[in-house]
Specification:
single chain; alpha+beta; 48% helix; Sig_transdc_His_kin-like_C; phosphorelay sensor kinase activity; histidine kinase
């Protein structure tokens, strides 16, 4: 019984609530009808032109009351927002982005207060919950009494423009960050040379602040001498004959210190190809130039020292040869007069002769080494086949050693004496170090790009890899071989380097060695 009473009471309350809602709806409906009637009256007052404009306008167009209720939208606005005030109640409060709500309310109040037309930008939600940026220009619609009663406005989608602007702004910030962190100075100037932007490196370079540089012209921080040189290139730049150029020029710092810089200047053009600005990339080369001057001085000093050393070696070698010949002659006289000497004395004489010959060979080697890059003889065409034949004819080659030419050698252009030294030293070296009963020396040549590549192969004692570099040093000989001065391979390397070639070798101990070298074609 109690449950039944409770149910009846609940139904009664529900009925009362429904009646209240219906009454509110009637009131609201009446208000809307009044608003529509007033709006219709206003629109009719504006005539057929307004109706035609409303129906045909391409831009988004809407009409609201002063409380923000959207009363009318044209086709473009309905398609853009997805809302249709004919089918649903829509208030601008419902579609304004939450982060722009305060801005919208404040702007609307100012609009009503000032009654002036301005353009506002804000975000809205479409019916599909998409966020769109719009640019909105509202106007007031007055009633017959001249009082504001409605608002109307045209709005357009600027989402892509805002996104592009944001991307551009982000890129600008990234570019500014790159420029500010760059190690080289970058400065932008207009066509009159007035500085309009610079990065931190350029500011630090001249010890000026950005604000101070904005008050300066490029000429104020440059030297007049450099300006005169640069002006010719600048004329070519502005005439379109060149797009950029590089110059080394001096700048004046805030403290008056002179700094050298490598400067690349490039033109900046507008969409029609007219030069509007010039950008310069400036790199401090003061220290580099100082180092270059020091190196030039050291190079001159080294060249002079080398000349003195070569002259000294030449003089010493020449002066030593005279007493050496005298000693050899004296030993020969003593040997002739010592017929009755013992066999030990004769051995000592022979040993003395060998040492004198070795000394003579050593002095000749020093003289040859010091003159490799000193004597400038006239270059000739040299048939290496004939040259090598002459070398083999004058070289002592034991009967058990065979020399083979594996290919026809080329004709090269150079100095005959140097080429003789080169091949003679390599052939002699191969002959000396062959320890096999049947010795073989193979000489070959092939063309590789712009170089002739030669090889001289033997089946001698071989060389351990750890000595590959050492054997080219002066006075370095791995074995005590009769007739070896320890300078031959040093001369070979120096001659090859003189002709801008390279030399290297491959070798297997107890099997043999192959020397390779190149000479420009």
């Amino acid at each position: 019984m109690n449950r039944l009473k409770t149910l009846e009471l609940a139904l009664k309350k529900e009925k009362e609530a429904r009646l209240k809602v219906e009454q509110l709806l009637k009131i609201k409906k009446a208000e809307i009808e009044v608003v529509n009637k007033n709006l219709t009256s206003v629109l009719e007052k504006n005539g057929l032109d307004f109706k035609y404009l409303f129906e045909t306008i391409v831009d988004n167009y809407l009409v609201t009351d002063l409380f923000g209720n959207i009363l009318k939208m044209n086709k473009a606005a309905i398609e853009f927002t997805g809302f249709n005030p004919k089918n649903e109640s829509v208030n601008v409060v419902d579609i304004i982005h939450k982060d722009d709500f305060k801005y919208a309310i404040s702007s609307f109040r100012n609009f009503l207060k000032e009654e002036s037309s301005k353009i506002y930008q804000l975000r809205i939600y479409t019916k599909k919950k998409e966020i769109k940026w719009i640019e909105f220009k509202p106007n007031l619609i007055l009633n017959s009494k001249g009082e504001p009663e409605f608002t109307q406005g045209i709005f357009r989608d600027v989402t892509q423009i805002k996104q592009d602007k944001q991307i551009s702004e982000n890129q600008r910030k990234e570019l500014d960050a790159i420029l500010d962190n760059s190690q080289v100075g970058i400065v932008l100037a207009n066509t009159k040379g007035n500085i309009i932007k610079s990065n931190k490196a350029f500011q630090n370079f001249l010890d000026f602040s950005e604000e101070q540089l904005l008050q300066k012209n490029v000429e104020e921080i440059s030297f007049q001498e450099e300006d005169e040189k640069t002006s010719i290139l600048m004329e070519e730049l502005y005439e379109g004959r060149i797009d950029n150029f590089i110059v080394n020029k001096r700048y004046k710092t805030k403290k008056g210190i002179i700094i050298w810089a490598k400067t690349q200047i490039k033109s900046v053009k507008n969409e029609v190809g007219k030069i509007t600005h010039q950008v310069a990339v400036v790199q401090d080369i003061t220290k580099e130039l100082e180092q270059e001057k020091k190196l030039e001085f050291l190079l001159e000093d080294l060249t002079e020292k080398n000349k003195e050393l070569r002259d000294f070696a030449h003089v010493v070698s020449h002066d030593l040869k005279a007493p050496l010949r005298n000693m050899n002659t004296l030993v020969s006289w003593l040997e002739e007069e010592s017929v009755a000497f013992s066999s030990n004395n004769n051995k000592n004489f022979k040993l003395l002769h060998k040492n004198l010959e070795k000394m003579d060979l050593l002095i000749a080697g020093i003289l040859n080494y010091t003159t490799v890059d000193k004597v400038q003889n006239k270059k000739k065409n040299i048939d290496l086949n004939l040259l090598l034949k002459d070398i083999i004819d004058i070289t002592y080659v034991p009967k058990h050693i065979q020399i083979n030419l594996k290919s026809i050698l080329p004709t090269v252009r150079g100095d005959v004496f140097r080429m003789q030294q080169l091949f003679q030293n390599l052939v002699n070296n191969a002959v000396k170090y062959i320890d096999k009963k049947q010795g073989i020396i193979n000489i070959d040549c092939i063309l590789e790009d712009e170089f002739w590549k030669f090889s001289i192969e033997d089946n001698g004692i071989g060389i351990s890899e750890k000595y590959f570099e050492k054997i080219f040093e002066v006075f370095q000989s791995l074995e005590k071989v009769e007739g070896s001065s320890g300078i031959g391979l040093s001369i070979v390397k120096k001659i090859i380097h003189f002709y801008n070639g390279k030399i290297w070798l491959t070798s297997v101990v107890n099997k043999g060695t192959t020397f390779y070298f190149t000479i420009p074609k």
